[in-house]
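#help-structures
NK: newbie question, is this the right format to request a structure? protein is Probable membrane transporter protein
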Amino acid sequence: MDWLIIALAGFLGGMLNAVAGGGSFITLLALVFVGVPPIAANATGTAALLPGYIASAWRFRKDIEYPASLSLKHLILIALIGGSIGAGILLTTSEQVFAKLIPWLILLATAAFIVGPWLLKRRIAEQGENTSTPMLSPITALIMLSAVCIYGGYFNGGLGIILLASFGLMGQTNLHGMNGLKNLISALLTAIAVVVYAAGNVIDGQYLLLLAVMAIIGGYVGAALAYRISQPLLRGFIVIVGLAMALGFFMR
């Protein structure tokens, strides 16, 4: 039964990441349910979803657009340094503290899922498709993106939509270009975070391969269904899952 739960979670996680995001919610819940400690569950789920991030970054490589205030070199450094710092903080966090933080982190990510799309639509409506005037100064953009990358290295849940909202504040309005950049930064910071997790020996190898394989399969299926499933319906489902998980962890 444990293996079946993990396989289903990997498939659903990969599918959700392909069409809307939030796949790490599912993998974290499944791993904790089968008895994996919270920190190891978070690290293992992140590692299992890494191939999907890399594939997405490669797929959207031609669509990448960079904020006017930050260069590619800056973005790579921020992603790598932020991801490693976040992963390092995770390794120094006790299981008890992290378990108490999980529902709050899930609520933060769920709030981002709710507010993010509205924020992006408002930004596009105010500035127009061809405008790249930043709402933030370069130093503010640098600090904000660094904080998001540290968050991604620490927890990873809801990272994509938080990044998209950040890019909107930096002046970007082209959703294809923003998605390309989101995938690149997600892949970079997740890759370095997984290296830190592995060095800290917090990845559960027992379920990693199955979870990763099923996530890849789910990603392909999700990509095929992306244009057939209502995005509002998917986002509503993810919000419900996020709130239910937060409530479950609070009660636990």
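mod (FA): yep, format's fine, and the tokens are attached above. The radius of gyration is 17 Å.
NK: thank you!
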